[in-house]
Amino acid sequence: MDEPRPLGATAVSAAVPRRGKPMFPDGTGPAADPAGSHHERRIRSFQPRRSRVTASQGEALRRLWPTWGVDVDGLSRLDLDAFFGGLPVVLEIGFGMGEATAQMAAADPGTGILGCDVHTPGQGSLLGLAERNGLSNIRVANGDAIILLREMLAPASLAGLRVYFPDPWPKKRHHKRRLIQPEFVALATTRLAPGALVHCATDWEPYAEQMLEVLSAEPTLENLHDGYAPRPDFRPFTRFEGQGLDKGHVVHDLLFRRRG
Predict the structure, then answer these.
(1) Are 218 and 254 in contact (CB under 8 A)?
(2) 144: number of CA atoms within 13 Å, CB side?
(3) 108 has binding-site annotation
(4) Of 160, 193, 32, 156, which is closest to residue 90 (Cα–Cα)?
(5) What CATH fold (topology level) applies to the domain 10-258?
(6) Which of 71, 254, 55 is nearest to 162 (CA)?
(7) 89-124: buried (b, 16+ CB within 10 Å) or exposed (e) per residue?
(8) Is 74 in a helix, a strand, or coil?
(9) What is the pLDDT of residues 21-51, one digit of tens each?
(10) Is the distance from CB of 91 to CB of 161 less than 8 angstroms?
(11) Which residues lie within the region annotated Disordered (predicted)?
(12) What's the pLDDT score for residue 36?
């Protein structure tokens, strides 16, 4: 089985509370910094935010996190079969407030969605949506997506990977913070089963070009289209997409498949 190549600078980093105060001191919710000092620090692909958690979001986290949440501490392998009751699992990195994730989970109850994010309000929002809509195929991972992939997921364990509207880091000096880099893709593909789908979407043209170049250069992936893909029906319209369209941006989807 393929082993991940060494990683460079990009990562999705674990959340750190404001002024160092724990939001869930009794351990009933996501940890502020689950990986702690166990793993090396890297340049973050986006900034963690733990502020402005509403009462309903906090309550959802306290009640549902022990069952449907997992902190990315990098210390143990995550048993996806046990976590999702045997469903094939798609990893979604960066789900915002979770509306689109909940819609996709409702439309495809036979697929588990593991959403990885560091935005505490979004974590609470997604768990609340899952409960209110009876969605038993959603789980939430809190922390660094690279540590999750590298340390906690088995090779060929994922049925898909979704990255929708990640931070484009438009300034040239910040391009190294973008998530879709060769090192990240090389790692992620080792965790994909043969035939697994990689789906990225962005409204930032230069980032779309980088995504297409990086994904096309990965030998274990094949592009399902000649360049960019038509918008697939299964990807819901997102708030970030609407903001981009309001600014006159063009949304690009990219669909690649893990070779057998």
Answers:
(1) no
(2) 27
(3) no
(4) 160
(5) Rossmann fold (3.40.50)
(6) 254
(7) bbbbbbbbbbbbbbbbbbeeeebbbbbbbbbbbbbb
(8) coil
(9) 557 766 678 988 788 756 556 655 445 555 6
(10) yes
(11) 1-52
(12) 74
Token pair belonging to 125: 């929002």
| Alpha-carbon span 117 to 65, nearest angstrom | 14
246 is in an annotated binding site: no
172 is in an annotated binding site: no
The reported pLDDT for the residue numbered 27 is: 66
Is 2 flagged in the annotation as binding?
no
Residue 89 CA to residue 152 CA, distance in Å, equals 14
Q: What is the mean pLDDT of residues 216-232?
A: 98
pLDDT in tens, 186-223: 999 999 999 999 999 999 999 999 999 999 999 999 99
Residue range 168-179: average pLDDT? 93
- The reply to whether 233 sits in an annotated binding site is no
Cβ contact 177:10 at 8 Å: yes
Domain boundaries, the chain: 10-258
pTM assigned to the model: 0.87
Between the two ends of the chain, the Cα-to-Cα distance in Å is: 12
Q: What is the mean pLDDT of residues 238-245?
A: 84
Q: Is 202 annotated as a binding residue?
A: no
Cβ contact 155:193 at 8 Å = no
pLDDT at 172: 93
Residue 14 has pLDDT above 90, yes or no: no
Q: If 0-12 CB within 10 Å is exposed, 13-18 middle and 19+ buried, where does residue 220 land?
A: middle
- Could you tell me the two tokens for 228? 């960019």
Q: Which of 71, 73, 167, 253 is catalytic?
A: 167
Q: Is 110 helix (H, G, I), strand (E, B) or coil?
A: coil
Between the CA of residue 170 and those of 105, 173, 176, 223, what are the distances in Å? 31, 9, 10, 25
Answer yes or no: 246 catalytic. Answer: no
